[in-house]
Design a protein that fits this description.
Layout (H helix, E strand, L loop, with lengths): L2 E3 L2 E4 L2 E6 L1 H13 L4 E5 L8 E7 H9 L3 E5 L4 E4 L1 H8 L6 E8 L7 H7 L5 E7 L2 E2 L9 E3 L17 E2 L5 E2 L1
Parallel strand pairs: 1-4, 3-5, 4-6
Antiparallel strand pairs: 2-3, 5-8, 6-7, 7-11, 8-9, 9-10, 12-13
């Protein structure tokens, strides 16, 4: 799978980068020669960060769709894979200029009492896709793949790791 390291900046514990149309067009030529339909756009840093934001411009989305490429966004905070069908659905969004893929480790102190009780000391991550101020959360039945850099604690089993959804009212749902 081709990997493109994006220029990035780190500010107040957050690493940021942008997938531009120019970058996508260059990598599409590589995809045409390879036997994969996936491409990884990665932002790296040696600094300690707990948040990442990668902006994918609309023209980049359109070029990836045309190439039938799956987009993988990767940082030290996490990885999000958006298959072509998901990109197609996102691209139908009215007034789409870009999507922001945000992955952050959430400080436990920022949770309310009920949320703290529900997560019982476990790590909490926030994964959001935004079109400006609007959340993108439906993909017409298509799925995205999320990977987080979580290491099991001593004595912990993978079966004990859960994914929760926090709805717009701040209520956690299994």
């Amino acid at each position: 799978i081709p990997v493109v390291e994006l220029p990035s900046v780190v500010d107040q514990g957050e690493i940021k980068g942008t997938v531009t149309e120019e970058t996508v067009n260059k990598i599409i030529k590589t995809l045409e020669k390879s036997k994969t339909n996936k491409v990884i756009f990665e932002i790296k840093t040696e600094q300690a960060v707990e948040k990442s934001k990668i902006v994918v411009e609309k023209k980049s989305i359109e070029a990836l769709i045309k190439a039938k490429a799956n987009l993988i966004i990767k940082s030290v905070v996490g990885k999000v894979e958006l298959p072509t069908k998901v990109l197609e659905e996102i691209n139908k969004t009215a007034s789409l200029k870009s999507i922001d893929v945000n992955v952050a480790k959430v400080p436990t102190a920022s949770l309310n009492a009920e949320q703290k009780k529900s997560v019982n000391g476990a790590d909490v991550y926030s994964i959001e896709m935004m079109n400006g101020e609007n959340k993108i959360s439906t993909f017409a039945g298509n799925k995205i793949k999320i990977s987080l850099p979580y290491k099991l604690k001593s004595g912990e089993l993978g079966e004990g790791v859960f994914i929760w959804y926090m709805n717009d009212k701040g209520v956690l749902e299994k």
